[in-house]
Amino acid sequence: MLISLENIIETPDEQYYSHIIENYGEEGLFDPVEISKKMSDNSVNSIFKWLEWLDWRVQNIDYEKWNTEISNFINTHFNKCSDLEILYWLLLIKPNTQVNVNFQYYIKLYEKDYIETDFQKPFDLWICLFNLHSHYWSEYFLARKYVVSTDTDYPNSLIAELIPRLINQKIKNKWIEKFFSNTPNSRDFLSLLINDDSFNTPKWFQYFKELNPSSFQICLLILRKAEQSNIFTSPEDSKDLFWFNYYKARKGDLFLLIYTMNRVLSGTANHCYNLKHWVEFLTFIESDFNIIEIKVRESENTILQKKWANVKIELFKI
């Protein structure tokens, strides 16, 4: 894929910049992989470092094509790179590189250079890589004493991200036991309620309530659980009205609801939220949409006004 200096939001280091200016000019197109091969240090480590640097700084390009071509190059040469830090970031930011063979190489490299129990970074990386979850890797990390015994390095916030991704119930139960032995707070437990349907029972909703959640957390729970196939969706269900009332009782107001709706929508592509349920929640807090418009306008808060405009566009497509 060809790019120019105009597609890079920051000036490359002197070696790259001089080469590009001399051979292509300010607006000339060049292949970022090919020019890296012409540098004095054209090792795979250096090329990967250059590509990782570029990936954070390219703009106004066909990102799908960029990701495909860069990922293909990375996958072809992955086992020739020995820079763990660069491999870490490339695996993290390039979904097409998140394949088992690459992760196995990364772990093998890590085991060779680090003490056996120092597996925080590989573990944190694996947690983020949906494509790599398997019973094998679950058992692999559970076997690392550092992972299962050092609470300070694996706080509940991290364990709460892991639990919903575990398939083997025996392994999952071990992590659930560890999670609760650390005395979870409302924020960490909310992550489980939202992301793991096995916790969607009256028992666990009551447990969440006893953790004294904030009005924002209650709002987030109501909005995020409004999915088409979930028990937390029906506006006629008394359980929903309970949480609506609980939101108000915790001094959750209209503006916080709008902010949270915008936050959830902006962070979720191709969502499956039940927006009729969202409208129900909104009208429960303020039944007259004309009054909502007036309140937002009279707030003179331009950020709130923009967020409300974004929310309206999504809500009233239903």
Account of the protein in words:
The protein is mainly α and 318 residues long. Among the domains are: 1-80, no CATH class; 189-318, no CATH class. It is built from 19 helices and no strands. It has helices spanning 14-24, 32-37, 44-55, 63-77, 84-93, 100-113, 120-128, 135-142, 145-149, 156-162, 169-181, 186-195, 202-210, 215-224, 238-249, 254-266, 275-285, 289-298, 302-315.
Features:
mainly alpha, 318 residues
Secondary structure layout plus pairing:
Blueprint: H1 14-24, H2 32-37, H3 44-55, H4 63-77, H5 84-93, H6 100-113, H7 120-128, H8 135-142, H9 145-149, H10 156-162, H11 169-181, H12 186-195, H13 202-210, H14 215-224, H15 238-249, H16 254-266, H17 275-285, H18 289-298, H19 302-315
Helix pairs in contact: 3-5, 5-6, 10-11, 10-12, 12-13, 14-15, 14-16, 16-19
Q: Strand-residue fraction?
A: under 5%
Number of DSSP helical runs: 19
Which percent range fits the helix content? 55-70%
Number of extended strands: 0
Overall 3D shape: flat
- Give the H and E element order: HHHHHHHHHHHHHHHHHHH
Alpha-carbon Rg, integer: 24 Å
Characterize this entry briefly.
This protein is mainly alpha-helical. It is 63% helix and 0% strand. The chain contains 19 helices and no strands.
